[in-house]
Model the fold of this input.
Amino acid sequence: MQDIEQNMDELFRKAAENYPLKTGESNWDDIAPALLNSPVIPAESTKKRSIKKKAGLLLLLLSLSLAGWIVFNFPGNKKEITRLNKPGDEKNMTNSFNKTSIPFTKQNIEKKSATTERAHSTTQDQQLENGSILLPMKSGHRKIQYSGNKNRSRDNAQFLFKDRLFQNMPVTVFKNPINDIANPKQIDPAHAISNQVIFKTAIEANDINAQKETTTENLTEKKKNLMPEKQGIYLGVASGLSFAEVKNQGFKKPGLNIGVIAGYQFNGRSSIEAGLFFAQKKYFTRGRYFNMDKIGSSMPAGMEVVSLESTSCVFEIPTRFKYNLLHKNKADLFSSAGITSYILASEKNNYLMLHNGTKQNMTGLYKNGSKYFAATLDISLGYEHTIGKSSHLRIEPYLQIPLKGIGVGSLPVLSSGLRIGLTKFTR
Amino acid sequence: MQDIRHIIKGCVARDHKYQKIFYEQYRGYALKIVFRYIYRYEKAVDIANDGFVKIFANISKFKPDNEEDIEKIMMGWMKRIMINVSIDELRKSNMLPEIGGIPEHVWEIADSSQDADQLLLYKDLIILIKELPPAYRAVFNLYIIDGYTHSEIADLMNIAIGTSKSNLSKARLLLQKSLKKMEDGKLCRI
Done:
């Protein structure tokens, strides 16, 4: 039986290839007008566009990570300070200091013996208090005054010490700033003592700092000091573009989103945030992913969805935990994770339907205000820059992974985009 | 005959001169595919023309993997488009069976040669296929002649895989009966 079938199949295949059909005269004139009006469909497929867009977003995330890594790992102060702390360095530098003829050399040596103990005992006090650091330069003076933050004065001392020209030069730490010091020669030691002035070399000062830093307590202190100890409530606004897709079918047009943020910062690194955003989501899907349960009863029997394009307006309520990964000066690299709940304000679907073998277009507009708690899982990686005292500008690529379907078709909508925001501490 | 690559390039550039060359070169091939699905000859000509409009609209998407077999690949691509437009037409008409015979003027009159009998046989076999109910005809053409799988047929015709298998089985039964009748008829004439 199978042989007969196979023989029959082969026979029909040959017939299909060779049967004698008259093709007749060419009727190009019938087809030419249709060609003038027909649209030309671009070569790039939706799938390729989707892959390109995803690759673009991934590249952006990687670029930000790389930029952060470069900024925060750029070789600078650390190496110089480490170099100063090498055993043997101090001795060599001290010897060269002694050889150098600079103002106050004699006085410095005298003061060194007399005030060394005091320096050790009072250094911490001096450095803990508000103080200024003066480094006399060859061609002039540079006076730096700091008030308030003990940590900052030490940090900047290390920063200034990095220049080896200053290593053998006297360093003056003042409790109260002295204006207009044009020449260290003019400093009267007696006057300096009355103002609790300590003369020490940059190496000595650095040694003392280095000794302190070896203790665990100081390490922690240093680490803490690297992150500003901001705490409190902040508010902000953010806006951006996002792309939405369903089941890897490709992104279509971008949607706009805009909203407000409120957050509470626990310490330099951690904070929690909530927000309220109005977002537009534009996506496409084939009919096979569209769940007919909700609208099946309102359609004629036998009608099927071939595909649809949707524009949905949603109110997004994100809540998330934000963590600063890296900090330097005024810049932070942060990551965040959380969930977003949706309130679907409106949904407009352009359907391509199939009914009794006929395709037709239909439009549906739904305004039922459906609520979806924890509709998406959000992750992001961003960059934040401090402006002024308490304002921050942030740029943040993000990804919203669907946890449930939304809309009349219960579609799992994946969103990704870029948000730019401005936040400010309330006090 | 111009190189197929130049013709395709010209069609991509929407040059009517190359589109016309392409149309005239492959019209017969396209019509023979469509005529297996569509009962009426005039309708088949219209559907084939629709197919060419789609081909020219989408020709920029045609990117063959192998430049050497470009014509073969292009004809395979063209075949799929012609089949798609034929199936769309059948679904539009709700797979309703057509009545009336096939006029003789649509067939190429064979010379009295060795191949004449063979060609007549082929003509008769195609008529047998065309006389099947449209749903069976479509499945038989897609599976046996054009090499589609039941899964692909189900997607294309928006039917279940089981329905595709069932239609094929019924088509085969009907064709076997028709073939037997045809053979018996020939024997009687002898």
Q: What stands out?
A: The radius of gyration of chain B is 18 Å.
